[in-house]
Design a protein that fits this description.
By secondary structure, the chain is an alpha/beta fold. It has 10 helices and 12 strands. α4 links the parallel β2 and β3. α8 runs parallel beside α10. Bound molecules: pyridoxal-5'-phosphate.
Length: 379
């Protein structure tokens, strides 16, 4: 690979914050400062004592408010992040057969985890070429539809809607949605899901290691049914244990308190400014800037051809062959702008830019100017 030339971007063009990674993603300075200022009152104290429990409660009520959850829905959380929650659902939520929409690295991974499980039927996996997304197909024998709100590896977003049979009847199965890079930044109607789950290191601008799931009464009931069925379930990822602990604002094993603290800061910041509408207004503003720039330049094209599938939280921008994306990414790093590289396994000459609510739309605009500046000088 060619050596990266040294190019110094003028200070006036630089974004205020150079973090554009799609996860772990930018954490607002205000949140980090608040964590420091929480001093001796939280970190290093027991997760079974009132101060930490009240923090967990703020997270749960904050999420319920952010997503406008109807009565009867519960916000459940435990250690492990989204990847662990996939296994938690395989043991504790899928009854017999799931259907997966697979259109990128993350959606594909859950489908793979659910394949060859000894006590489940083989899942149905519906795929499309990367850069697009498939649609779920209602079937009598499917008890769980696994959707992904935003495929972080490709920058494709979907509309969350329950699948319907040809006669218009809504499918019976549970709709479970990986919202790891979507929750807080994309609009969703709780009537369309049974389990909307995510980890907080993306739109929630916190650290990883935790999973959070907004569960409908039907999903809570299913977890109870499977638990009572006698299926062997590893204790540490038993979903019904998390469901029992969450209303008590505690977790089965030791909680990552700093992660919860940072997530609370972000959720309350969103809610105090207007809730999900505020988050979506910011991701709309940022993505409008990014995609109109990419369409206007002759060396860039949005990777996702269909504008209705283009993500407002993670933008993927292809560069022409003459401009090497890795070189651009490395020059940006020299200038303090990090994590603009394409998802590794996608292997494209591409920039991938996170536009989560914490990221300032003005910084996205500045980033596009910086890329222009670099590309002009590479020519
Ligand atoms: C980041 C991401 C994951 C993985 O999350 P972990 O907390 O690291 O397990 C899964 N799904 C999507 C859509 C993601 O963006």
């Amino acid at each position: 690979m060619a050596e990266t030339p040294t190019i110094t971007i003028p200070q006036a063009l630089l974004p205020k914050d150079g973090r554009f990674g799609s996860g772990p993603a930018k954490i607002r300075d205000e949140s980090l400062r608040a964590l420091y200022e929480s001093g001796h009152s939280l970190l290093g104290t027991s997760h079974r004592k009132p101060p930490v429990k009240s923090l967990v409660q703020r997270l749960r009520t904050g999420i319920a408010s952010l997503l406008s959850l109807p009565d009867g829905y519960e916000v459940v959380l435990a250690n492990g992040g989204t990847t662990i929650f996939w296994d938690t659902m395989i043991f504790g939520l899928i009854r017999q057969r799931s259907q997966h929409l697979s259109f990128g690295e993350f959606s594909g991974k859950f489908a793979r985890h659910a394949t060859n499980v000894p006590f489940l039927d083989q899942p149905e996996v519906i795929t499309t070429v990367y850069g697009t997304h498939p649609h779920p197909v209602a079937r009598e024998e499917i008890d769980t539809y696994a959707l992904t709100h935003n495929e972080t590896s490709t920058g494709v977003a979907t509309q969350i809607k329950r699948p319907a049979h040809e006669d218009g009847r809504v499918a019976d199965g549970l709709v479970v949605v990986d919202a790891t890079s979507a929750a807080g930044g994309l609009f969703v109607d709780p009537a369309e899901f049974d389990c909307y789950y995510f980890a907080p290191q993306k739109c929630l601008a916190a650290d990883g290691g935790l999973w959070i799931a907004a569960m409908s009464p039907a999903a809570l009931e299913r977890a109870g049914e499977i638990d009572a069925s006698g299926r062997w379930i590893p204790e540490a990822i038993r979903l019904s244990t998390a469901i029992a602990n969450s209303p008590l604002n505690q977790t089965y094993n030791t909680l990552a308190v700093a992660t919860v603290f940072l997530a609370v800061q972000q959720v309350e910041w969103l809610n105090n400014n207007g809730g999900l509408h505020y988050g979506v207004s910011r991701t709309n503003a940022s993505s409008e800037i990014l995609y109109s720039w990419a369409e206007a330049r002759d060396y860039t094209t949005p990777y996702v051809a269909d504008p209705s599938m283009r993500s407002r939280v993670v933008g993927t921008i292809d560069l022409v062959d003459e401009v090497d994306a890795k070189t651009v990414v490395n020059v940006l790093i020299q200038n303090g702008i990090v994590d603009t590289n394409a998802y590794g396994k996608l292997d494209r000459n591409q920039l991938r830019i996170a536009m989560f609510p914490a990221i300032e739309p003005d910084d996205v605009a500045a980033l596009t100017q910086c890329v222009d500046y670099v590309v002009e000088r590479l020519a």
